[in-house]
Each structure stands twice: as structure tokens, then as C-alpha cells.
Amino acid sequence: MIVGIIPARFGSEEIECKVLALIGEKPMIQHVYEACEKSNLLEDIMVAADDIRILDIVKSFGGKGVLTSKSHICGTDRVAEASRSLSISPSIVVNVQADEPFIDAEMIDEVLYPLQKNEEEVMSTLSCLIKDRESFKNPFVVKVVTDLSGYAMYFSRSPIPYPRREKYGAWRHIGMYCYRYNFLQKIASLKPSLLELTESLEQLRVLDYGFKIKVVVSNKPYPGICVNTPQDLKLAQRYYAERS
Asked: Which domains does the chain have, with CATH numbers?
């Protein structure tokens, strides 16, 4: 079974309970949930929340969710706990970030592909080309550098790689992860790593402990609107209004 889990917490650094902020007439979490519902490969979908107020909203639009501990420092740990609550352990878990309201459902299918194609792959994520200097310098836009085989070498909020002598394409990390169930539980059982805590990037725990993450370059158009700040929220609301 392949399950999609959306980790959602009430508190946030810049926006109080941003996952319930309205974009159009719907809360952001509903936009994400409905995108997951359009995936051809997800067999189940649920929200992993740390507050009953989030679950009440999820239930109001017909979604499913589970209440998880408030102590988790990252979405991966929250998703791992939620996946353990299922009556049947899934084979693969997709972590879809709750602050990505414009994720294309086909991106979920893209991130699943490496694990479906190769039984040795244990984790994958997505990237896309950064097309403007402002995004390259923005600490809320996470950058990823990969090796020649497409495995992540590092993720950072800093501009990487630094273009010292020649122009080099930089890649944006898109907030979605795919894990084999047993690997997800293993990662969640490990102590947060120094790099993870330094950059506040959960995927660095995986690299710090010596595991590989396959990075898929998405072929789908990505508007680059991940809601982290009040300005991001206004941009998302304006983008949605223009599309409607």
C-alpha cells in the first residue's frame, strides 16, 4: 500500500497556524489534501496534525487525519508516527508538505517513480531549476546539489553552489519526500543531526547518517510558492485568485 501523509502543526515561526490560512475560500491544508486525492498512485491519504483544531477542519471537508505528538521537531518524525497508526503498514509513504498549496498531483507520481522502479532505493524527493537570483538568495528557498547519478550531496538555505567563475544552474528543492516504510521508521528513530539542527532541514539527518536520497527533476510546472511568511501567503492568495 502507498499512503500519502501531510504533516501539519499549529505553530509556525512566521504565521500562526498557516495551514489553516485561507487561500480563496479553502484553508491551505485542503488545497494540499485535494492535490493528493488527484494522484493516480496514492491508495490512502491522511493529515498528521499536532492540534485538534487542524483535525476538525480536515474532517469538515471530508478528509482523514490523526493526532500526533507535539514534541516532533520535523515533519518526517510526525509522518513516521502517523504511519504507525495505520491498521496495515504501508510499503511506501509519501510526505507532502502542508505549506505547498499548488503541488501538482503528478509530482506525487514523479517522486514515487524511483522506489517503484528500483527496490534498492529507500528515499526520494523532487527538485526544479531556479530561474531568478532572488530565489537563489532566499533562505526559505532550499537549494539542493546532486552528484552525477542524481543523489543529493547537500541541501542548504544558503546559495549553493556558489557561481564563482561561470554560470551554473542552481536547483530548488520541492518539499515532498517518498520513503520505504521501514526506512522511514529507522530515520525517525535516529537522533536529530547537527547539520539538520543547524539549517533546520530534516532531510540533512538522512545524509548525516550516510544514507542516499534520490532527487527527481520534476517535469511539471511549479509556481515556486511555498508559504513560509506573510508575504508568501499574500502571493499565494493572489496567484490563486488570478487562476480562478
From this structure: 2-236 (3.90.550.10)
Nearest-angstrom CA–CA distance, 166 and 160: 13
Mean pLDDT of the chain, nearest integer: 93
User: Which pTM value belongs to this model?
Assistant: 0.93
51-78 tens-digit pLDDT: 999 999 999 999 999 999 888 989 999 9
- The rounded distance, in Å, linking the Cα atoms of 154 and 207 is 8
The cell numbers describing 61, all together, are 471537508
Nearest to 55 by CA among 13, 14, 85: 85
- H, E, C per residue of 42-80: CCEEEEEECCHHHHHHHHHCCCCEEECCCCCCCHHHHHH
122 in Cβ contact with 211 (< 8 Å): yes
